[in-house]
Specification:
Length: 109
């Protein structure tokens, strides 16, 4: 009987640990959800800000450099490194890994 109680106690602790880990996973996973790229912006030839590929809309950016940007399905527009994310396409599902000075780092599936 004593061994049975010990086994039930250990099983209860394991189930409690599993429930806590699942709750932790749900809370942490909402921070970096997967998003879809809706628009890509590249520097315009006239140098007055990035121009959207699909929509043709111009972004008004305070920076006068040649910056690229992406618009995501969550409504946010972030600057990206032009060379690093050149092969990402509109409609790709990506995860935003980090945001530094309004510039993002992305990860594919």
């Amino acid at each position: 009987m004593r061994v049975l109680r010990l086994k039930i106690g250990i099983l209860g602790l394991l189930v409690l640990t599993l429930v806590c880990l699942l709750i932790l996973k749900i809370v942490v996973s909402t921070k970096g959800d997967w998003v879809v790229i809706e628009e890509k912006y590249f520097p315009a030839k006239d140098g007055h800000g990035p121009l959207g590929i699909k929509s043709g809309e111009k972004l008004d950016t305070p920076q006068s450099g040649s910056t690229c940007a992406m618009k995501f399905d969550n409504g946010h527009i972030f600057s990206v490194d032009c060379d690093e994310y050149l092969d990402y396409n509109i409609g790709d599902e990506v995860r935003i890994v980090s945001i530094d000075n309004n510039e993002v780092k992305l990860r594919r599936k």
